[in-house]
Amino acid sequence: MRIAITGGTGFVGRHLAERLAAAGHEVVLVARGVDRRDETVRSLPGVRFAAASITDEAALAEAFRGCAAVAHCAGINRELGAQTYAAVHVAGTRAVVDAARTAGVERVALLSFLRARPDCGSGYHESKWAAEEIVRASGLDWTVLKCGVIYGRGDHMLDHLSRALHTFPAFATVGLADRPVRPVAVTDVAGLLEAAVVEGRLARQTVAVLGPDEMPFGEAVRRVASVVGRRPLVVPLPVLAHRLIAWLAERTMTIPLVSLAQVRILAEGVVEPLPFADDPPSDLAPTTPFDAASIRAGLPRPGGFGRRDLRCAAR
After folding, report:
1. Which contiguous run of DSSP H or E holds residue 243?
2. Mean pLDDT of 34-43
3. Which of 155, 187, 237, 266 meets the CB 3.0–4.6 Å disulfide criterion with 172?
4. Element (H, E) at 173
């Protein structure tokens, strides 16, 4: 079976592509080609790359031609230039759905966020919700996966947590109350996406995707710190202070230490879907524990933040 993956060179897209290729499927990686952090996925058997902007309907339709399904994994957690939430999440999803119809694609699965919802004052949350509504109204066999905090090799969570722990003696949690999280392994997310796009399961369902372990975010930090051999002082910091840090990081770092959207996400907690979602069936429910083994498997090479992480150095 031939499957297209938007955001195919990104974090979740790469893991899904590896899983599908290992099962013998043809995979079309659809992306702008900007993310070149891990290009090994492009050389996997049965995998080819199609360069296309997420809003270029004609290029998308050409990339989707001959595909049975599209896994729509493209997304951003900060706005940069023309890459706005409205452009990527809303206009991009509309272009993906229209291109899928043009190309005769049967199914589309959308990777969304657990608490994406309308009228909440967050451009990230609202644009993800708008994308969900576009997919649900597509007329295709659709699946929406509302995911919590996803971790694994090449992620943002473990990458930035471990690098922060190698750089700073203390770590600040978001808000004076330590909100809960249920980290979900990217391998479990890829399994759900595979079931949706290959097997046609979860059709016309909005599904919550959460890991099996619930804990305060500070405990998640301590678990990662233990694996990397650090003992930071974990302290609460008001949300307003984190917003200031995120505002500065978005403007000075190539990949921000934390984004404004992530501050909002962690300030709310990430354990309950909004406004609605079904639980996955028991055989597809994530089971990977957030333990030393799964953390270690997803860690980058040891090292802290440095000048290379600044946008001025990149230029």
Report:
1. helix 239-252
2. 74
3. 237
4. strand 170-174
| 51 HSE (CA, 13 A, CB side) | 5
Buried b (16+ CB within 10 A) or exposed e, 78-102: bbeeeebbebbbbbbbbbbbebbee
The domains located in the chain, with CATH, are 2-154+182-209 (3.40.50.720)
pTM, two decimal places: 0.95
Query: Tens digit of pLDDT for each residue in 131-151?
Result: 999 999 999 999 999 999 999
Sign of CA pseudo-dihedral 200, 193, 112, 61: negative
At residue 39 the predicted structure's pLDDT band, cuts being 50, 70 and 90, is confident
Query: Whose structure tokens read 């080609």?
Result: 33
Query: How far, rounded to the nearest angstrom, does the alpha carbon of residue 139 sit from its chain's CA centroid?
Result: 25
Burial of 242 (0-12, 13-18, 19+ CB in 10 A): buried
The C-alpha atoms of residue 27 and residue 64 are separated, in whole angstroms, by 10
133-156: string of b/e by CB count within 10 Å (b at 16+)?
ebbbebebbbbbbbbbbbbbbbbb
* The pair of three-digit structure tokens given for residue 85, joined into one six-digit string: 């939430």
The whole-angstrom separation of Cα 219 and Cα 150 is: 16
User: Measured between alpha carbons, how far is 42 from 9 in angstroms, rounded to an integer?
Assistant: 8
Residue 205, strand partner residues: 143
User: Among candidates 247, 16, 26, 252, which has minimal Cα distance to 154?
Assistant: 16
Q: Cα–Cα distance between 50 and 2 in angstroms, integer?
A: 13
Bridge partners (DSSP) listed for residue 173: 236
- The amino acid occupying position 282 is S
Q: Among 76, 131, 111, which Cα is nearest to 188's? A: 111
Percent of the residues in the chain that have a pLDDT greater than 70, as a whole number: 97
Asked whether 116 and 128 are in contact (CB, 8 A), the reply is yes
Instruction: Kindly state the helix (H) or strand (E) to which residue 186 belongs, with its residue range.
Output: helix 186-197
